[in-house]
Each structure stands twice: as C-alpha cells, then as structure tokens.
Amino acid sequence: MIRTRFHYRFLPEWDRPLEQKRIWWDVFDKINDGTSAIDHLESAVSLLDHALRQGAIASSESDNVTDEWRAFLRQRSFGAGYNELSAQRDAAYERVVLVNRWPGFAASAAIMAINEYQRQLERLPEWIEAHGIDSAIARDALDTFRRQFPNIRDIRHAVAHMYEIPDDMERHASTEGLQVPLMKKAAGSSGIIMNSFDESTREFFYTRKGRILRIKLTSEVVDKLIHVYKRLVHGYLVLGGSADLPNWPDIEKA
Length: 254
What we know:
The chain is mainly alpha-helical. The protein contains 9 helices and 5 strands; from the N terminus they run H-H-H-H-H-H-H-E-E-E-E-E-H-H.
C-alpha cells in the first residue's frame, strides 16, 4: 500500500484566501485519484508472487506422485493402491494446469492497473491548467511514465481483446522472432502469443497488430509508479509554497 498520501486535511495552512486554498486542496485530491490504480497494481504483483510460489509447489507435488506411480509400473504392480495412486496423479496434474493459469490472470490485472494510472496522468495537466495552476510538473510526470511504459496502451488492448485476436490472425499474427530461456519463436514464423510468460524473468508476452509486446511485472514496476506519484506530490507542494515537505530523499535528488 502507499503509506503517505495527501488530503487537504493534512496540508499546511497557507496564508491565502480560502478560495485559493480550496484550489490547492483540489489539486491533491486529483493527484490522489490515481492511487487506487497503484494499490491494484501492488495487489496484482503480490498475487503473481503467490501464483508462482503455488505453481512451484504444485509441480513438485505432481512430480512426487508421478514418480510413485511410475514405480508401480516398473514393478508391474496393479494391485492394491494402484487405482488410488493413479487418481492422485491425475488430481495433482490437474492442479498444476489450474495453478499455471493464475499468473496470466494476475498479469492482466496488473496491466489494466498500469494503463489506468496512465489514463489518470493524461487527464491531470488539463485539469490543473483549468484551475489556473502551472501544469509543467504534471506533464513531466506523464512524460516520465510514458518513457518507462512506452507500450502499455497496446499491451492493455492485447489483454482486453485477448480472446478476439485469434479471430483476426491476418491482422495480429507476428513474424518476429522471440528467444528467451523458456520460449522460442523463430523469426519469419507467423503466430500469436496469448498471455505467455517467462518465469525466470517474469516477462509476459502478447501479440497485437503484428508485434510482440512484452512487459516485466515485478515489485520494481510498483516502485516506478509510486516514484511518479511522489514527484507529483512533492512538486506541487513546493509550487504551492508549502514548507512542510515529506522526507523523500530520492525525490529531492531527482
């Protein structure tokens, strides 16, 4: 969770007319509109962590049961215990299949949250300008975000329309090559990638309009959004003439 948020109740009392102070209070309320998306992103990344751990546990349990089942076969023993062990093996395998779907759902939620935060940032400069305040800080925050997530809108569309993309292979199939530890796609071969990921790097891959799109989902992604949020808060506190600044050394040095 984002521990330090700002609401008008916590802002210092500026020596200004009440109407001016209300404008600045509204600025911070508007900045905070995007923090729900950061919360959702943090939850999605945490869910991804849990899904990967559960996937490893399920795979290990399945391997153990399968080894026992194979031992029965080597002994040509189909007596007591074989049917029960076969059922355990099948259940363990089904568990692996189920749990291995979880990372994709967590990734979809994370991607939607990142895109939503961009949407909030895109609306902020115009709203601030309409209140007679310089929007340069908000525009800089948006530029920073776009440099960090240049393809997030396309990735969001790939996720949102994932089940429709196979219906238009000619438009969406990619001939780009992909060489990562757990996934290989030869350059020139045409195909689509739907919610595939490389567990070793936590990178997720999608295809849309002939391109392979990728995004790495770790706690560092959450930190990037929090950093943008802190820059907004710090910048507008300074612009608003507040001497009561949060202790954020990383922001002050930026």
